[in-house]
Design brief:
The protein contains no helices and eleven strands. It has strands at 3-7, 10-13, 18-25, 32-39, 46-52, 57-59, 67-72, 77-82, 91-99, 105-108, 112-117.
C-alpha cells in the first residue's frame, strides 16, 4: 500500500508563496498520477493539480499561472509551488497518488493546512 508523507503549508499573507512536498513510498504500478487536492471548510474536495507518470500535468482553472506542480520519479516525490496566494486558496491540501492499469487505486496523505490572510 502506498504511504504518503506531506510537508510544507502554513500561514502566509496574500500575495505570498508556499511550497508543499509529498513523498510516496511503495508505488507499485508504472501507470500512476501524483497530485494535490484541497478542501476548504464547507466545500467539497477539489483537484488542484496533478502530474501523470506519462508527463501530463493538469491544473484547476483557479490556480493556473500561479501554481506549479513538479515530480521526481526517482524519488517518488511531488511538489506544489504556490505563488501569488489568495485568501480563497485557504484550505487543507492533500497529496494523492492514483495507480493501477485503470488508476483504480487511490491513496491520500494526512493533509496540511494552508492559510492565506488578507
Amino acid at each position: 500500500q502506498v504511504q504518503l508523507v506531506e510537508s510544507g503549508g502554513g500561514l502566509v499573507q496574500a500575495g505570498g508563496s508556499l511550497r508543499l512536498s509529498c513523498a510516496a513510498s511503495r508505488i507499485t504500478f508504472t501507470s500512476n498520477t501524483m497530485g494535490w487536492y484541497r478542501q476548504a471548510p464547507g466545500k467539497q474536495r477539489e483537484l488542484v493539480a496533478d502530474f501523470s507518470s506519462g508527463g501530463t500535468t493538469n491544473y484547476a482553472d483557479s490556480v493556473k499561472g500561479r501554481f506549479t506542480i513538479s515530480r521526481d520519479n526517482a524519488k517518488n516525490t511531488v511538489n506544489l509551488q504556490m505563488n501569488s496566494l489568495k485568501p480563497e486558496d485557504t484550505a487543507v491540501y492533500y497529496c494523492n497518488v492514483r495507480e493501477g492499469p485503470s488508476y483504480q487505486y487511490s491513496y491520500w496523505g494526512q493533509g496540511t493546512q494552508v492559510t492565506v490572510s488578507s
